[in-house]
Amino acid sequence: MPAPLKLVIGNKAYSSWSLRAWILLAQFKIPFEELLIPLDRPETRAMILEHSPSGKLPALRDGAITVFESLAIVEYVAEIFPHKAIWPRGKAARAHARSLASEMHAGFAALRRDCPCNFRRPVSAIALGEAVEADMARIEAAWAHARENFGRAGPFLFGRFSAADAMFAPVVNRFHVYDVPVSRATRAYMDAIMALPAWKAWVADAEAEPWRIERDEVG
Ligand SMILES: N[C@@H](CCC(=O)N[C@@H](CS)C(=O)NCC(=O)O)C(=O)O
């Protein structure tokens, strides 16, 4: 039997990028071993470098192959599990899903900077700057467009859960814990993500973690 995939992640309270790869594997019921490295500790960098040449997580180990960068991991998983609809099956939907995933991967810097992912944060609003509001507006518009044009078959961006949802999962946390006023359609999508067994498992693990990073405890 081949060795299972090993996913190396940052700790779950804060590691937004790790959540993407983790929720994808968990939700598609792909067996994997998890290795969790607490972030922002004196030993963190050396520990990460044992698994990821970029010094960042997540990293996926498949035997001798190492894949780092969350979006590259998503693409690798789609390649090795072609029978699973990691990306939507329709060509147009798939092209759009990949566009949104890339947009998320490369963008929304203001939202990421001012509203750090925090899976233990009690829900409460903070003052949002113009740049953050612009990021949020674009994300809501992108979600609404995907849901209206490709999402009829289910509650997710492209109907059934796909890589696009995995890429945006950390934004669901941000919109939720910073109590962002969102449309009903956005809230319904967030609720669908937050009802996933994989989401709930991630949150439960985050709540049980002992580590705290002060700069990510905003507000
Ligand atoms: N673009 C990378 C970003 C990865 C990233 O920034 N990961 C953070 C954790 S969420 C990290 O490894 N930080 C460790 C450090 O900077 O020491 C990806 O998509 O995987």
Describe this protein's structure:
With 219 residues, the chain is of the alpha+beta class. It contains 9 helices and 4 strands, in the order βαβαββααααααα. It has helices spanning 16-27, 44-49, 70-80, 91-106, 109-114, 130-150, 163-177, 184-194, 197-208, and strands at residues 5-10, 32-37, 59-62, 65-68. Strands 2-1-3-4 form a 4-stranded mixed β-sheet. A hairpin with a 2-residue loop joins β3 (59-62) and β4. α4 (91-106) packs across α7. It is globular, with a radius of gyration of 17 Å. The chain binds glutathione (GSH). Glutathione binds at residues 10, 15-18, 39, 44-45, 56-58, 69-71, 105.
User: Strands of the biggest beta sheet: in what spatial order?
Assistant: 2-1-3-4
Q: Give me the count of strands.
A: 4
Which series of helices and strands comes N to C? EHEHEEHHHHHHH
Beta-strand fraction estimate: 5-15%
What Rg, in angstroms, do the CA atoms define? 17 Å
Query: How confident overall, as mean pLDDT?
Result: 96
DSSP helix fraction: 40-55%
Q: Which residue ranges are poorly predicted, with pLDDT under 50 across at least 5 consecutive positions?
A: none
**Which of globular, elongated, flat, extended, rod-shaped describes the shape?**
globular
Q: What are the distinct ligands in this entry?
A: glutathione
Distance between the termini: 49 Å
